[in-house]
Each structure stands twice: as structure tokens, then as C-alpha cells.
Design a protein that fits this description.
Layout lengths: L6 E6 L1 E2 L2 E2 L2 H4 L20 E5 L5 E3 L6 H26 L9 H6 L6 E9 L2 E2 L2 H18 L3 E9 L7 E11 L5 E3 L1 H7 L16 H19 L18 H108 L5 H7 L2 H61 L2 H12 L8 H43 L11
Antiparallel strand pairs: 1-6, 2-3, 4-5, 4-8, 6-7, 6-9, 8-9, 9-10
Helix pairs in contact: 4-6, 7-8, 7-9, 7-10, 7-11, 9-11
């Protein structure tokens, strides 16, 4: 017993891209732009034309299928088109005026195309036997339905799936004036085909269904006569039973599914890259925070040291003021004693020439003068000692301040250089590009990812501002140290005030 095969027949005039083009059937186009065609197998294709008796003859003329169909429409439908144009002009519908070639390409009057095959790619029937069965069927159809006119037939062996036939035909009917027109309903009515069931004409009960059932039964009978056993259980058409547009639609669907998978994979990669970028941004921000905190701590310590030095200078200034006051008091005492000694000297000089020198000398208490001079001398020695100690303390403090100032200036320069390097490292071209990349990412707002990364970027900007503020504070501390240095230099000439000659 031979293996059963399924007979597939699909009828349509147009697909989603418009009416079917006969150039596809006889390959009268650039097949390089058709990825579904295997050009190495195109030579296996066959082409026929159908005569008025329904007989298939190999297509050997120089005309293409498109030219043959154009000639057929010009011969059979030019009069009907002209009559329709006259009626349109009379009714003032100039937009309805058309030509026989436009009539051939219109959706309702274009040739109908039937895709026909027996078997599938896994169970292919010999194409010669298929051609014989199809030829017998077309002869029967020409006798049973004479107004169904087959124009041309093409066997395609270079497409995916089993070899299949493209049969193009027209439903030839007549208008009220007897002119030939393309009209399926009128053609069926003129051939006496009625609905398969009694009652109202509906989508599931119309003359075309009666034609289809009778044609299907004859196809199965002819196939049986040729020894081909068919599978008669109906099923939904698969890819092998689709027309060109159906096949292309399936290919587009597969491409869409593949693109969807690639999009999901790209989203995963983008999410992974975003997480990595976020991790690096967190590391950079953490390092920046650490460096900024260290810089602020050092700035605070240096400010504290500067504050302590300032207070030390204030204490020294107070001590210097007190010493100046003591020196002023001692200077007054010195002046008083000097006046007394001068008066005494004048009196002694005067006593040499005066007879009463004895009485004057008797009034002078030489011991008291001696004691007063010794007391003044001791006080002067104490002042000089304290002055020398003060000079020594001032020199030590000046040296300490100078050393500390040099150290602070060096550390300030190092801190500024390190802060500049750290800032350049944090906000360098690479990190800036990363920040711009994170800022320009078009992520789904629903998961919140975009806002998290943007907040991290703003935090980075905030830390950068804090670092600049720390640098500004360090600059102000430097200005304070400079003021203190200038103060010390201003005080330096005043040390001469203590070098008093006693």
C-alpha cells in the first residue's frame, strides 16, 4: 500500500503587499533580492501557458507572464472597461476612469492565484506526476466551469518546502451590456452554480463554496486515477501550503522572535554593564569621600595648630607689654636718680668755692645715696636680665614659628598638589566619559535604575564641591599664617626698645 499524501490548494488575489505579481512566478525579477529563493535550483522550475481548451503547453515564447496577462486583459476586457469609464464620466466620477492594465492590477479584478501541490518536503510526489494530475484537472475545469479561464502555470522547485504550482486565472463574466468583465459572483451565477445549502446566502453558504467542494472532489478523483492515495483528513495549512506572502509573513515572524531574543540578551548585557559602571562609580565616590575626609581632617589639624600659635603670640605680646611698662617705670626712676646725682654734683662743685662746704656735706647722707644707687643698680641688672631672657624667648619663638611656617607651607603645597591630583583622577576624562555615559543611558524608569545612577553622579558632584570648599578653607588658613608672619615682622624692630643704656 502506497503512503498517503496531502493535497493542498490555496486561492487568493492579494496579500499584505498588494495583488500578486506574475513576475514572481516566471522569475522575471532580480532574484538576488529574494533570500527565500535558492538560485542554484531555479533551473529546475517549469512554466506553462493554458490555451482556450484548458490544455497546458510549455511556455517557449519570448513574452513574459506579465505581458501575456496584459494582452489577455486588453483583448477581453477593453470594451467593458471603456463602457465603465463612460458610465463613470456620465455620473461625474472622473476618478473612476481606468485603463485595461490598471483594471488588471486592481484588487477586485486582478487574476486569482491558486498555489497547488501534493505531498510535502518530507514526502514529495514526483513533479511529473503532479504536472499530469494538474493538467487533467485543468482540462476538466475548462469543461465544467468554462468561465474560469486559466492564464499561466509555474512549477517552483527553488523555494523552501516541497515543489508547488502557481496557477493564475480569471473569473470571466459579462456586464449588463454584454461586455466581458472580471467578476467571480456573476461568473458563478452565469455558470449556474448556486449555494450548496438551501436558504440565505452567507459566508458559510455561497456559490464559491459549492465550486470549491466540487473542484476538490474532482482533484481527489484524478489523483486516485493516477495511483496517488491522498490523505483526506482536513488540517490547518502549514508553511508548505502557504502562498508567497504567507511564507514571507512566517519568515518575518521568525525574524521578529529572533530580534526579540537578541533584544533581551542586549538588555541583559546593558544591565550588566550598568551594574559594573555603578560599582565602579561607587568605588570612585568612596575613594573620593575618603580622600576628602582626610583632607578636611588635615586642614582642621593645621587650623588648630595655627590657632595655638596665634594664642602663643598673643601671650608673648602681653608679656612684652608688661616688660615695656616695667622698663618705663625703671626709666623714670633712673631719671629721678640722675637728677638727684646731678644736683649733688652741682652742690659739690659749688662747695669747693664756698666756705660753708662743711655744712652742706654734713647735710648729705652719703650712706643713703650709696644704698639708693645700689638699689637702682640691682633693679637695672634685673631688668637687663629679664630683657635678655625675653630676647632669648622671642628668638626661640621666632625660630619655632618660622620652622612651623615652613613646615605648614610645605605640607600645604603637598596637600594642594595631592588634592589637585586626586581631583584630576576623580574627574578625569575617563571618569567624565563614564559619568556622561551613565547620564545618557535610556533605561526603563519602572525599575528605578536610571535615577539611582543619576543620584550617584550628583553625589560625586557634591563631593567635588566639598573638596573645593576644603581647598578654599586651606587657602584662608594660609592667609591667616601670612598675616601672623607679617605681624612678627612688624614686631621685630620693637626689640630695640629693650636695648636701653643704663
Amino acid at each position: 500500500m502506497s503512503e498517503k499524501r496531502r493535497l493542498t490548494a490555496h486561492n487568493a488575489r492579494a496579500g499584505k503587499h498588494g495583488v500578486f505579481n506574475p513576475k514572481h512566478n516566471d522569475r522575471n525579477f532580480d532574484t538576488e533580492k529574494a533570500p527565500h529563493i535558492d538560485k542554484s535550483r531555479t533551473a529546475l522550475n517549469r512554466y506553462w501557458v493554458c490555451d482556450d481548451l484548458g490544455r497546458l503547453t510549455p511556455h517557449t515564447s519570448g513574452e513574459t507572464f506579465d505581458e501575456l496577462e496584459r494582452d489577455f486583459y486588453e483583448t477581453h476586457f477593453a470594451a467593458g472597461v471603456e463602457a465603465a469609464n463612460e458610465r463613470a464620466l456620465k455620473a461625474r466620477h472622473k476618478e473612476r476612469v481606468t485603463t485595461p492594465d490598471e483594471y488588471r492590477k486592481a484588487l477586485r479584478t486582478a487574476p486569482e492565484e491558486m498555489i497547488w501541490q501534493i505531498g510535502d518536503k518530507d514526502n514529495v510526489l514526483d513533479v511529473d506526476k503532479q504536472a499530469q494530475i494538474l493538467a487533467d484537472y485543468l482540462r476538466w475545469e475548462r469543461q465544467a466551469f468554462p468561465q474560469v479561464r486559466t492564464l499561466d502555470v509555474a512549477l517552483h522547485c527553488d523555494e523552501e518546502g516541497a515543489p508547488h504550482f502557481h496557477v493564475r486565472r480569471v473569473w470571466l463574466a459579462h456586464d449588463d451590456e454584454g461586455n466581458e468583465i472580471v467578476h467571480q459572483g456573476r461568473a458563478l451565477a452565469e455558470m449556474g452554480v448556486t449555494c450548496p445549502k438551501a436558504g440565505k446566502r452567507t459566508r458559510n453558504n455561497n456559490p464559491k463554496m459549492a465550486y470549491t467542494m466540487r473542484s476538490r472532489a474532482e482533484m481527489e478523483k484524478i489523483a486516485g486515477d493516477h495511483g496517488v492515495e491522498l490523505e483526506l483528513t482536513r488540517k490547518e495549512p502549514g508553511k508548505t501550503g502557504l502562498d508567497l506572502v504567507g511564507f514571507q509573513a512566517q519568515q518575518e515572524q521568525l525574524k521578529a522572535e529572533k530580534a526579540k531574543q537578541e533584544q533581551k540578551e542586549a538588555q541583559k548585557q546593558a544591565q550588566k554593564a550598568l551594574q559594573e559602571a555603578k560599582r565602579k562609580a561607587d568605588e570612585i565616590l568612596h575613594e573620593a569621600n575618603k580622600k576628602a575626609a582626610e583632607g578636611l581632617l588635615r586642614a582642621k589639624e593645621e587650623a588648630k595648630e595655627a590657632f595655638d600659635v596665634k594664642h602663643s603670640l598673643e601671650d608673648m605680646e602681653k608679656q612684652k607689654t608688661a616688660l615695656r611698662e616695667e622698663i618705663r617705670i625703671l626709666a623714670d626712676q633712673k631719671k629721678t636718680l640722675g637728677d638727684e646725682v646731678r644736683d649733688l654734683s652741682e652742690a659739690l662743685e659749688l662747695g669747693k668755692n664756698v666756705k660753708g662746704i662743711g655744712h652742706l656735706l654734713a647735710r648729705v647722707d652719703r650712706g643713703a645715696v650709696s644704698e639708693a644707687a645700689e638699689a637702682v643698680g640691682e633693679k637695672v641688672e634685673g631688668v637687663l636680665k629679664r630683657s635678655r631672657e625675653y630676647h632669648e624667648d622671642v628668638e626661640k619663638l621666632t625660630y619655632r614659628v618660622s620652622s612651623y611656617q615652613v613646615k605648614m607651607e610645605q605640607e600645604s603645597v603637598d596637600l594642594a598638589r595631592k588634592a589637585r591630583e586626586e581631583y584630576d583622577r576623580i574627574s578625569g576624562p575617563k571618569e567624565q566619559r563614564m559619568a556622561n555615559y551613565m547620564k545618557s543611558l535610556k533605561m526603563n524608569r519602572k525599575d528605578g535604575t536610571k535615577w539611582t545612577v543619576w543620584d550617584a553622579f550628583k553625589e560625586h558632584e557634591r563631593k567635588r564641591v566639598e573638596m573645593e570648599m576644603a581647598k578654599e578653607q586651606e587657602r584662608k588658613a594660609q592667609e591667616a599664617r601670612e598675616i601672623e608672619r607679617l605681624t612678627l615682622e612688624a614686631l621685630e624692630p620693637q626689640k630695640d626698645d629693650f636695648e636701653m643704656d643704663f
